[in-house]
Amino acid sequence: MINRKALILKTVIAAVTAIAITFIQVHNGMVGLVAVLSFATGILAAEVWDALTSGDSMLKGTVLRVAGGMIFLIGALSYASPGADAFSVFVLDTMLIGYALTAISLFRAYKFGWGSPDGRDNIVLAVVHFSLAALFALDSFGVNELGEVPAVGFFGAYSAIVAVLWGLRAFDPKRSS
């Protein structure tokens, strides 16, 4: 059973992030960092709200642990590297958020059942989240050098894609709320 209100909240957060990145003229590391941190804060808050309102204690524990770990890691990375440029922190934070959302989506797919419509939707979302995380991991390891403008653009495109996927799930009339 899906929580339509949490999905609508996640849709709005992702859509606002995508629109903001699209229509801001400057695509430097600071814009990307602000976008990814606001996206991560909103999405993780919506995930926690969704988990707390569900009756599943296993889902609550998993989502709360992953969200808490992500907040701790992002804060520790930002605090431990005060001299790092905004683009490097943006790349690392985006990679971590991608991996966290992949873990949450795969766990939700497991809980709903791999073959159920909600399970399949979560698998598609996990692939999208993992693709973003892998792209930014390749950049942070030096395999594929992304510039600031393409990296922020990729994050904006990712935000638009997940906004559409979450919006379709939220407003699907065949699913119970």
UniProtKB/TrEMBL annotation:
Keywords: Membrane, Transmembrane, Transmembrane helix. The chain crosses the membrane at residues 7-24, 30-50, 62-80, 86-110, 122-143, 149-168. The keyword Transmembrane applies. This is Unannotated protein. It comes from freshwater metagenome.
